[in-house]
Design brief:
Helix 1 runs antiparallel to helix 2 (about 40-65). The chain is an all-alpha fold. About 75% of the residues lie in helices and about 0% in strands.
Amino acid sequence: MHLNWKALARDIAIVWVAMNLGGLVVGFAGALLLGPNAMTDPRVQLSISFSSFVFGTVGFTIAGALVKVGRFKHLLIVAFAVWLISATALLIAPLTLQHWLWGLPFNSVVALIGGCLSFLFVRSAKVESGGA
């Protein structure tokens, strides 16, 4: 499969923004309600995870609908790239290495769910067989 770098960059941006937008909203709401130590509250952490799941599913659904060929391979590459980019959170957020490592299977599952949902909106391109 030929990698379309522009499509990869576009979809990485879509998914990264979607996942982080949800977490940002929940994080700010938690800080407003619980104070400056809200990020250490398990309820806020669970809410951020749930928000990332929902918004990530939406992001992967949009990305999957934009890709017609090799959808799941493309989405798994996007999931891996978003996970690598999220390593920056180790520097700025109260995130442990173990939590970050669990992000890869989390992103992969969200990518598969979003990819499946994208078939509800756009069918994959039909490949013509060049039989004799």
